[in-house]
Write a structure and sequence with these properties.
Largest sheet: 5 strands, mixed
Structural class: alpha/beta
Number of helices: 23
Helix content: 40-55%
Distance between the termini: 78 Å
Length: about 650
C-alpha cells in the first residue's frame, strides 16, 4: 500500500510540474538573465589596468559641475556622452564628471585649448534599457489577464500547481472501526463501500451508485472522520479539500482549482473526493446580486464537473456542511448529491460507544464509570466527548496521577459545561445566600425525583459566571416531555429564588437567579406557543421557524393573542414559583441542613442529598476544609430569618 501511495504522489507531482505553460517561471528567468547582463555591462572595465612600465593606471578623480566650471583652463581633453563626461587634465590626471549640456561652457573649455568630442550614438544596452521595461510590462499585463479568463493555463494554472487546495492524497488507514456512535449512518454508507470494492455487481443489475453524498449535522459529529473511514474501508485513494480553498482574490481562480482537483480524481479513479464545509462555495445563488460573481462561477463549475460523470468513473464526491439549508437547490438534485445523510448527536448508547473507543487511547482508572459519564453528557458530540477525556487526562497530570480517576472526569465535565473554576473573594453573606439558593434547587429536585431526572450533585464552587449549580443525571435520552415534567422543571428552576425569599425575606433577593429565570421563561413560552400545552392558547403554533432558521416572537399572532400568551407565561411561572415556595416553607429545617452541609463541604453528591432529605446522617466523610473555608463557615453560621 505504501508503494502505491508513493507512486500516486509522484504522479501528481509530475502532472503538476509539467502541465500548463509555466509562464511565471519563464517570466522570472528572463528577468533574471536581463538583470545579470545589464549589471555585468555596468561593471565592464572596472578592473585595474596597467601602464607599459608595470605601474597601475591612476584612478580617475570625480569632479562636480562646479569643479568643471572652476577648473576649465586645466582640462586637456573631454569626451561627452549624454550627461557623463570623462577625459584628462593638463597634468595627465584622468577625471569623470556629470555635466549639463551647455554650448557656452563647451566653447569656453575649447578656447583654452581643450579637445572636446561628443558621442551621440546608442549602444544595444541603451536600447535594452528603453524597450525591456516596456516589453516586461506588456508581458506582465498579458500574464494577469490570461489568469483572469480562468483558462486552463495562465495565472490560475500556475497558482493551482502550488496545490493551494491542501489536497490530502494517498490511502487513509481510518476504517469504520474508528467511528462509533453512528451505526445507522454507517449502514447507510455501506453501499458506497461495496460499490468501490466491487462495482460490477451494481452495473450488472443496472443500478447507479449515488454520485454524490452530502453529510450534514452539528459540528463535531464526525462528518470528516466518516468520509475518511469510507475511503479506508474501501481501500481507495482519498482526496480532501475545504470549500474555502476554492476562493481567492483573483477572479477565475476558483474555477481553475475545481478543474484541477477533479482532473486529479479522474486520473486516480476509483476514489473518494471529499469537500469539507462545502457551503463556502455552494451557497444559494441570488437572482439580483452581482457582488459575488466569482463564487457563483466556482459553483457553476462544480455543478458541471459533478454532472459530467459517467456511471463507471468510480468517483464518489462527498460533501460536508453544518448548514445544508444554505446550499443551492441545483447542488442537491439527483445526479449530483443524490443522497443526504444527516448525522445526529449521539444518543446514550452512542455516547457510551464513543467513550469506550476513546478510553482505549488513555489510561482510565477502575473507579471511572463510563456509563454514568455517558448519562451526564446529553447533547455532547463525539468531538466533545474526546475533548472531555483529554481534559480529564490533563487534570490528572496536573495533580500528579498516572491514570484518570472519577475526580478528573467530574472536573473536566464541570469545566466544559460551566467553565473553569473561579477563585473569587466572596463576601460571607454571598456564600451563605448561594448555599441556600442551591439547597432550594436540590430539595425541590428530590421532591420531584419520580418525574424529573435524578439529581447528580450540588455545589457552591464558582465556575464561569455561575456561583454554584445543581446537576442532574438523565437515566436515558428523552425526546419529549409531559406537561407534568414541564411543570416540575419550572418549579425546580425557580426554587433558588424561592429559597432566597423564604430564608432571607423578599427584600434580600438577588440577581443570582438570572439564568434560572431565563431558562424557565424559555421553557414556559415554548410549551405554550409551540408545543400546544396550554388550554387557553390551544393547539395553535405561534412561533414558526422563518426563512433564516430563527424564531420570531409571536410571528403569526394578533396583538390580543400576544397579550394572552404573555399573561399565560406569567401565570405558569407564578404557579411554579408558588409551588416551590410552598415546598420549601413546609420543610425549612431540612433545607437548612442541606445549606449547612453545602457550606461545610462545598459539594454534595446525589446520594448524600437524598440521605439528608430522608433524615439520615451522610455516610461520606466531610471534605477537608481549607483555612479560608473554615473562616467563612464560622462567619456564616448564624440564625436564619424564619
Amino acid at each position: 500500500m505504501e508503494n502505491q501511495n508513493q507512486q500516486l504522489k509522484k504522479q501528481l507531482q509530475k502532472n503538476n510540474s509539467f502541465r500548463g505553460g509555466n509562464s511565471g517561471n519563464i517570466f522570472l528567468i528572463i528577468f533574471a538573465a536581463l538583470f545579470v547582463i545589464m549589471m555585468a555591462y555596468s561593471f565592464k572595465g572596472t578592473a585595474p589596468q596597467m601602464l607599459p612600465n608595470g605601474e597601475p593606471v591612476p584612478q580617475p578623480i570625480e569632479l562636480s559641475f562646479s569643479d568643471v566650471l572652476r577648473r576649465a583652463p586645466e582640462i586637456k581633453t573631454m569626451d561627452i556622452r549624454g550627461n557623463d563626461a570623462s577625459g584628462t587634465l593638463t597634468d595627465g590626471t584622468p577625471y569623470t564628471a556629470t555635466i549639463t549640456y551647455d554650448p557656452e561652457l563647451l566653447s569656453q573649455i575649447a578656447e583654452n585649448g581643450a579637445t572636446i568630442s561628443i558621442d551621440t550614438s546608442k549602444t544595444w544596452v541603451d536600447y535594452l534599457g528603453t524597450w525591456v521595461p516596456i516589453l516586461m510590462g506588456l508581458f506582465f499585463i498579458w500574464w494577469i489577464f490570461r489568469g483572469f479568463r480562468g483558462a486552463a493555463g495562465g495565472l490560475g494554472r500556475s497558482l493551482t500547481q502550488s496545490n493551494p487546495t491542501k489536497i490530502t492524497t494517498g490511502k487513509t488507514k481510518t476504517t469504520f472501526k474508528d467511528v462509533a456512535g453512528i451505526d445507522s449512518e454507517k449502514q447507510e454508507l455501506m453501499e458506497i463501500v461495496d460499490f468501490l470494492r466491487d462495482g460490477k455487481k451494481f452495473r450488472d443489475v443496472g443500478a447507479r451508485v449515488p454520485r454524490g453524498i452530502l453529510l450534514s449535522g452539528e459540528p463535531g459529529t464526525g462528518k470528516t472522520l466518516l468520509a475518511r473511514a469510507i475511503a479506508g474501508e474501501a481501500n481507495v485513494p482519498f482526496f480532501a479539500a475545504s470549500g474555502s480553498d476554492f476562493s481567492g482574490i483573483i477572479v477565475g481562480l476558483g474555477v481553475a482549482k475545481i478543474k484541477e482537483i477533479f482532473e486529479m480524481a479522474k486520473r486516480n479513479a476509483p476514489c473518494i473526493l471529499f469537500i469539507d464545509e462545502i457551503d463556502a462555495i455552494g451557497q444559494r445563488r441570488s437572482t439580483h446580486s452581482y457582488n459575488d460573481q466569482d463564487r457563483e462561477q466556482t459553483l457553476n463549475q462544480l455543478l458541471i464537473e459533478m454532472d459530467g460523470f459517467a456511471n463507471d468513473t468510480g468517483i464518489i464526491v462527498i460533501g460536508a456542511t453544518n448548514r445544508a439549508d444554505m446550499l443551492d437547490p441545483a447542488l442537491l438534485r439527483p445526479g449530483r448529491f443524490d443522497r443526504q445523510v444527516y448525522i445526529e448527536l449521539p444518543d446514550l448508547s452512542g455516547r457510551r460507544e464513543i467513550l469506550d473507543l476513546y478510553a482505549k487511547k488513555v489510561h482510565i482508572g477502575t473507579d471511572v464509570n463510563l456509563q454514568d459519564l455517558a448519562r451526564g453528557t446529553t447533547g455532547f458530540s463525539g468531538a466533545d466527548l474526546e475533548n472531555l477525556l483529554n481534559e480529564a487526562a490533563l487534570h490528572a497530570v496536573r495533580n500528579g496521577r498516572t491514570e484518570i480517576s472519577q475526580v478528573d472526569v467530574e472536573e473536566a465535565r464541570d469545566k466544559i459545561l460551566m467553565g473553569p473554576r473561579k477563585v473569587r473573594k466572596m463576601r460571607p453573606e454571598d456564600i451563605k445566600l448561594t448555599a441556600y439558593h442551591e439547597a432550594g434547587h436540590a430539595f425541590v429536585s428530590i421532591m420531584y425525583a419520580d418525574i424529573t431526572d435524578p439529581i447528580h450533585k450540588a455545589t457552591i464552587i464558582p465556575r464561569g459566571r455561575a456561583l454554584g449549580m445543581v446537576q442532574h443525571l438523565p437515566i436515558d435520552d428523552k425526546v419529549s416531555m409531559t406537561i407534568a415534567e414541564v411543570r416540575a422543571n419550572l418549579s425546580i428552576a425557580l426554587a433558588g429564588r424561592a429559597a432566597e425569599e423564604v430564608f432571607f425575606g423578599h427584600d434580600k433577593i438577588t440577581t443570582g437567579a438570572e439564568s434560572d429565570i431565563a431558562m424557565a421563561t424559555r421553557l414556559a413560552r415554548y410549551s405554550i406557543t409551540t408545543a400546544g400545552l396550554s388550554d387557553k392558547i390551544g393547539l395553535a403554533a405561534i412561533n414558526q421557524v422563518n426563512t433564516f432558521g430563527t424564531r420570531s416572537a409571536l410571528e403569526n399572532a394578533s396583538e390580543k393573542t400576544a397579550e394572552l400568551v404573555d399573561a399565560e407565561v406569567k401565570s405558569w411561572l407564578d404557579t411554579a414559583h408558588a409551588d416551590a415556595t410552598k415546598l420549601l416553607s413546609k420543610n425549612k429545617e431540612t433545607v437548612r441542613k442541606l445549606a449547612e452541609e453545602l457550606l461545610a463541604r462545598e459539594t454534595l453528591t446525589g446520594e448524600e442529598i437524598k440521605e439528608i432529605v430522608s433524615g439520615k446522617s451522610a455516610k461520606a466523610a466531610p471534605k477537608k476544609k481549607t483555612e479560608k473555608t473554615k473562616q467563612n463557615t464560622k462567619k456564616v453560621k448564624s440564625n436564619v430569618t424564619k
